[in-house]
Amino acid sequence: MSMRKALAVACVAAAVAVIAVVQLRQAGIIGSGPGLARADLGQGTATVGGPFTLTDPQGRTVTDASFRGKVMLVYFGYTHCPDVCPTDLAAIGEAVRTLGPAADGLAPIFITLDPQRDTPAVMADYVRLIDDRVIGLTGSPAATDAAAKAYRVYYTKVTQPDFPDGYGVDHSAYMYLMGRDGKFLTVFRHGTEPDAIAAGIKPYL
Ligand code: NI
Description:
There is one protein chain. Helix content is 32%, strand content 21%. The strands form three sheets. A five-stranded mixed beta sheet has the order 5-4-3-8-9, with helices on both faces. A two-stranded antiparallel ribbon has the order 1-2. The chain has a two-stranded antiparallel sheet with strand order 6-7. It has helices spanning 3-6, 16-26, 38-43, 84-99, 120-130, 141-150, 194-201, and strands at 53-55, 61-63, 71-77, 106-112, 135-137, 155-159, 167-171, 174-178, 184-189. It is built from seven helices and nine strands, in the order H-H-H-E-E-E-H-E-H-E-H-E-E-E-E-H. Helix 4 (84-99) packs across helix 7 (194-201). It is an alpha/beta fold. The structure holds nickel (II) ion. Nickel (II) ion (NI) binds next to helix 4.
């Protein structure tokens, strides 16, 4: 069974990618070309990433500093997402497996935007389906919101009567690659193929 089917539930994806691109352009994080213009970051005041304090599936407090010395691949989403998150997280899992032993230098991190439902136990069950090296992080609404803001993630809770619990979460969907020093390296767009993700990470490992 595909990840998509296994994890299917709620998430409104249609306009999210467009919104996210507009937001990132406005923030000066990406250019209008097909790829990320790293120069945009150097020239602007925009920064992506920063401190976070969250909880891992074992209930331990972890911060961004916990991952210093590893390259972080940071993705935001939620476990009830029907399509966007399962697609990207499956790709991340596949990329990790493609990297093989080199992935020891990588911390693939999935941070929930739906802490109300995504408890540490829920995150533990979810990441197990992706790859056991993926680290699922949750926290209080304030803590997850602070993490999302640090990464300039757009998200909003939306009422969806036909969804579980009557709501979904619209969200931007980028995979942020952060260096061993915690600084932004590059970003992969939603839908990037696993091989492309692995190839994009490999030079930094
Ligand atoms: Ni999603």
